[in-house]
Amino acid sequence: MSRESLATVGSLIRQVIGEDWDEADDIGLETSFGEDLELESIEFVALAEKLTETYGDAVPFVAWLSTMDLNQIISLKVGDLVEYIDQCLSSK
Amino acid sequence: MSFFQVNGTRLFGTVGGQGTTPLVCLHGLLIGSSATWFFPGTGYLGKQATLYCYDLRGHGLSEVSPGGYSLDSMAEDLQGMMDQWSLQGATLVGHSFGALVALKLACLSPGRVRRLVLVDPPYPLSRQTEMQQFLTLSPADMIEALPAALKGAIQSGGRQGRKLLKRLDQLVHHTTLLQDLEEAGLDSFLGLENLDIPTLLVTGKDSSCKEGVLALGSRIKGSHISVIEGGHYLPSDNTAGLMAAIGDFLDG
After folding, report:
1. What pLDDT does B81 receive?
2. A3-90 in CATH: which number?
3. Who among B16, B158, B160 is closest to A62 (CB)?
4. What ipTM was estimated for this complex?
């Protein structure tokens, strides 16, 4: 998986979490959105907006998430998203 | 990020789905946000509809304005968001208090509303008293009354729980929300009996709002009522059942 995608995703997550972000926390491929980051559902909406702003239609994040129920979304790891982004970008 | 200045307040809105039917989706008070509808809605309904979801004032990513939480004001916000999205008319889909906001706009400006989907509205207005009572509960009792997932988040003492409690505190103690709800009069839905808008009401078999929803349905001519498994929080209690009911209504 690409370091560039991981760096981009990490940066966007930090923007979404904002002032609650603990600088001591690293975001890695194994970091989970639910248990580790405790992302709220509205923060997933914000992350979706930021991913769309960054990647446009090349990475249809909302369509991808739409195939999952909330429990599946919450149990996602950052690596799952990075892998999805890489797949989308490589298939262009 | 998509923010809109509406009635002097900065509101967040987002759009998903590729279908031709415009749905404007409204969430419930306090623990709701645009996420209530956005992800399940785009997944289940995104082929037949485009979903326009926004955070009510004081909720989600929208500004916590000190006032403007009455049904009238919230209906003006809804109309303002439809203007921002250049929607002359749309199907309105609302959960809980969001359903009452949708119904209010239908009474005030029926020309803007093509269809109504009212999911477990706290009706009649006396139901709002229960909401006020909820807001005056002790923090422990308030947590006990929340859906299981949120209850767990708060009890774990994590970031989600802290944010939710902070937001509840802001809304209850630093806005006119409670006062605005108390001032809602019996004439809040003038013109209800004259409505001529296709309407679907959905309630949960285990919802405390069920009897009120059935009563409301009897006041809206030609309305359809669907009683499905679940409680008040149907968008999460029974996502598939709710989306199937809405999808069938849109197809009909």
Report:
1. 98
2. 1.10.1200.10
3. B16
4. 0.83
